[in-house]
Write a structure and sequence with these properties.
The structure is a single chain. By secondary structure, this protein is an alpha/beta fold. It has a single domain, classed as pyruvate-formate lyase- activating enzyme (Alpha-Beta Horseshoe), CATH 3.80.30.30. It contains 13 helices and ten strands. The strands form two sheets. Strands 2-3-6-7-8-9-10 form a seven-stranded mixed beta sheet. It has a three-stranded mixed beta sheet with strand order 1-5-4. α3 packs parallel to α5 and α9 runs parallel beside α12. The longest helix is centred in the last third of the chain and has 18 residues. It is globular and about 60 Å long. The C terminus is likely disordered.
Length: 367
């Protein structure tokens, strides 16, 4: 275990061709490796100039069609994060690398403006942060998410943010104005009210009480705020479901949704190791219940059931959720945004080779 990190395991990704094993060389190398592993590594940011920033979704389980992910990887280090396996495509570990080696799409706002300016673009709500958190700690320095929202605010384009960070309050000037115009919504992921559990389950995310305060701040500013009580992990945070929903409603959230834990690809061994490290007394019970919801398997990726599970226990959890949201008066309808307000931006100016040559000539004449 590493302080401030979800996992210490740099698990090999599924495309790895080579297997590595530490060998004692007689000079204390294994002891040195063990000492190094006890030190939490710093976050490394790798800049990327992306070719496009909008991605489309074809899953019927997800309520949005278009998404923006300003980063790849996430410093929050949530052990259960379904997006961890995406680092495999970068030849990086879905374990420790996912939360310590962050890809920052530094030209995201520029690419967004280009795509919105295309004549054939049709506006639909854009989700910010479907496979990463746009307000993870590095955002305070880089401001990529804010630059994206500035473009969306300028073009009056509706968007929704999913986060477990209070960093969204920094952009209240933009998010608040868009929210009051019916063009922005924020969904706060609130997995537990227990600060100790939050610290070991999602070590660099905002504390639960801080997220509740952010819900209150956004709601008072006129922003629609929903709560995502996700993911529900049997015998870990699942007993808190009703308390989480009630606390969010008291803070000002007006809608809610919930999903069950998903363990695709490398998330499965990472999660099971975490269970054994932090909850050895119930690790077997947790996995037995997970398999109850997945037809006897650790994970089932079938559309329509992968987010909610199947079987009696999954149905009981859905019934509990439905009863709670009804009792608390949560809005069950999807928030509709007025996309007729969208104003297409002017296409970026094209630079001709002759203009570049002329600029170079002028610059050269100064020296």
């Amino acid at each position: 275990m590493l302080k401030g990190r979800g996992t210490a395991w740099a698990i090999a990704h599924r495309f790895e061709k080579d297997a590595r094993e530490a060998v004692d060389d007689g000079w204390g190398a294994l002891d040195q490796i063990a000492d190094e592993q006890r030190l939490a590594p710093d976050t490394t940011v790798i800049e990327e100039h992306c070719r496009r920033i909008l991605s489309t979704n074809d899953s019927p389980d997800i309520s949005f069609d278009v998404a923006i992910n300003p980063y790849r990887g996430c410093e929050h280090g949530c052990i259960y994060c379904f997006a961890r396996p995406t680092h495999s495509y970068l030849n990086m570990s879905p374990g420790l690398d996912f939360e310590t080696r962050i890809i920052a799409k530094v030209n995201a706002a520029e690419r967004l403006r280009e795509q919105l300016a295309k004549p054939g673009y049709e506006a639909s709500c854009i989700n910010i942060g479907s496979a990463t958190d746009g307000y993870q700690p590095i955002e305070r320095k880089l401001g990529i998410t804010r630059a994206i929202i500035e473009v969306l605010a300028e073009t009056r384009h509706g968007f929704a943010i999913v986060t477990k960070s209070s960093g969204v309050e920094r952009d209240l000037d933009l998010v608040g104005e868009m929210g009051r115009a019916g063009l922005a919504a924020v969904y706060m992921s609130l997995t537990t009210l227990d600060s100790h559990l939050s610290r070991v389950m999602e070590p660099r995310a905002a504390a639960p009480h801080r997220r509740l305060r952010t819900i209150e701040t956004l709601a008072r500013a006129g922003v629609h705020v929903g709560v995502s009580a996700s993911p529900m992990i049997p015998f870990i945070n699942e007993p808190e479901l009703e308390h989480i929903l009630a606390a969010a409603r008291d803070a000002g959230a007006s809608s809610a949704f919930s999903t069950v834990v998903r363990l695709p690809w490398e998330v499965n061994p990472l999660f099971q190791q975490w269970l054994e490290a932090h909850f050895p007394d119930r690790a077997a019970r947790v996995m037995a219940r997970v398999r109850d919801m997945r037809g006897g398997k650790d994970y089932d990726a079938t559309f329509g059931t992968r987010m909610r599970g199947t079987g009696l226990w999954a149905q009981m959890l859905r019934d509990r959720f439905n009863l709670a949201v009804t009792r608390l008066g949560f809005n069950r309808e999807r928030i509709a945004m007025d996309m007729t307000q969208f104003v297409r931006p002017a296409p970026p100016a094209r630079i001709r080779p002759a203009d570049v040559a002329e600029a170079d000539h002028r610059q050269g004449s100064l020296f």
